[in-house]
Amino acid sequence: MKKVVSVVEDILSANDRLAELNRSRLDRSGVFAINVMASPGAGKTSLIVRTVEALKTEFRIGAVNGDLATTIDADRIANTGIVTVQVNTGGACHLDAPMLQSALAHLPLDELDLLIVENVGNLVCPAGFKLGVHRNILIASVPEGDDKPYKYPVMYQDVDALVLNKIDVLAAFDFNIDYFRRGVEILNPNLAFFPLSCKTGEGLAAWFEWLRNEVRGYVSGRTGADR
């Protein structure tokens, strides 16, 4: 009798179980966590730096940076003055729950309100591996083209918020925002959408306000649950 074993299913199931443990660990410390995903060069680190600079007087923020190699992006984030943990994936094209679990052990979670996880730059792999965060954020950018929701649907269908970065260069590219949004809304009609420019600052206020409300809503919900 032959038995077929699905290795991919086993790997994802094990990852999902660890993701649940990560969420429990974050919740015990009252830390709201977001997972920031994008292709290389879309502006993940730039958005994180701008976000930290805007919100660090309101919230105690920590960061985890995932990258194939180097600490370049982690150093940029750490220069904002927040605690930052670097995860070099050794060639893996995504962070997974075990990697985040290891990073959490090096963070003072009881001293944080918000944890920002910067995933590896990739538009395929990160979507398949849960981390245990509270919100998933995807950053697209104008130079990438307006067809990405159609070509990479899995990345777009399960995120909570979508940032369209680099709108300051819209005039230089044949980017149709209406076409882009139609592709997104077919997959995920209820997500929050933020066209902005990390370079000029246009549109950043709306993103900051959304994230601010998400963190405060999480804290308020926990307070209510404890009564």
Please describe the topology of this protein.
Layout: H1 7-29, E1 32-38, H2 44-55, E2 61-67, H3 72-78, E3 83-88, H4 97-104, E4 114-118, E5 135-141, H5 148-151, H6 153-157, E6 161-165, H7 177-187, E7 192-195, H8 204-225
Parallel strand pairs: 1-4, 1-5, 2-3, 2-4, 5-6, 6-7
Helix pairs in contact: 1-4, 2-3
Comma- or semicolon-separated keywords:
disordered N terminus; 227 residues; alpha/beta; 7 strands; Rossmann fold; 8 helices; 7-stranded parallel sheet
What's the quick description here?
By secondary structure, the protein is an alpha/beta fold.
Please give a structural write-up:
The protein is of the alpha/beta class and 227 residues long. It has one domain: 3-Layer(aba) Sandwich (Rossmann fold), CATH 3.40.50. It is 41% helix and 18% strand. It is built from eight helices and seven strands; from the N terminus they run αβαβαβαββααβαβα. The chain has helices spanning 7-29, 44-55, 72-78, 97-104, 148-151, 153-157, 177-187, 204-225, and strands spanning 32-38, 61-67, 83-88, 114-118, 135-141, 161-165, 192-195. It has a seven-stranded parallel sheet with strand order 3-2-4-1-5-6-7, with helices on both faces. α1 (7-29) packs parallel to α4 and α2 (44-55) runs parallel beside α3. It starts with 6 loop residues before the first helix and ends with a helix. Mean pLDDT is 92; it is low at 1-5.
